[in-house]
Amino acid sequence: MIELTDDFQQRAKDIRCVIFDVDGVLSDGKLFFDLNGQEYKSFHAQDGQGLKLLQQNGIDVAIISGRSSSIVDRRMKSLGISHVYQGQENKVAAFDDLLTKLGLNGDQVAHVGDDLPDLALMTRVRLAIAVNDANPSVLEFCQGQTTRQGGQGAAREVCDSILAAQGKLDMAVKLFTDA
Question: Are 33 and 39 in contact, with CB atoms under 8 Å apart?
Fold first, then answer.
């Protein structure tokens, strides 16, 4: 889990939406193409469960990615995530649209990223989080860093940490033990 410092907990307590980058965060950042140009990515099952837990606890989940991929559309649809912005060279425009749609401001949002294209959002949100293997240049702009690498359960760590900071993680776990 992310180190739950007082600053992290204070910032996380009012988060109503978590934005995730894809390549390097929800996937390991490796891009695989076959000879026909078909793209392949892998996603960690625990990350998917974490994204579902956020949604089940009233926290919106959004994707803002610089690249476009039909695989991402399919995965997000399977997780019930409807706020998906792909092919966003300028991520700020998507961010502004998302805030308008959700009726939120940057102080109610967290962003999880790994590289320089994420900085524009990391500097506009209340809680910026980097994955363990993020580019070192983004770390000074973050209030938290995962112990796991992107695509290897880092997103789940973010979800659990935010839910813990909001006092909701134990109840989320209890729902599974009582089933």
Answer: yes
Of 119, 151, 169, the C-alpha closest to 25 is 151
Give the model's confidence band at 150: pLDDT under 50 very low, under 70 low, under 90 confident, else very high.
Answer: very high
Joined together, the tokens standing for residue 159 give: 């979800």
**To the nearest 10°, the Cα dihedral for 81, 84, 19, 133?**
100
Q: Say if residues 27 and 41 touch (Cβ distance below 8 Å).
A: yes
As for how many domains the chain has, the answer is 1
Q: Which structural domain range is residue 159 located in?
A: 6-177
Tokens for 74?
């399919």
Task: 120-127: list long-range contacts, CB under 8 Å, 24+ apart.
Answer: 120/90, 120/91, 120/92, 120/95, 121/19, 121/64, 121/91, 121/92, 121/95, 124/92, 124/95, 125/19, 126/11, 126/14, 126/15, 127/8, 127/11, 127/12, 127/15, 127/162
Provide the whole-model pTM. Answer: 0.94
Residue 59 corresponds to which tokens in the numbers above?
Answer: 């926290």
Q: What angle do CA 127, 63, 161 make, to 5 degrees?
A: 40
Is the pLDDT assigned to residue 40 strictly greater than 90? no
Which residue has tokens 């994204």?
A: 51
- Tell me the CATH number at 149: 3.40.50.1000
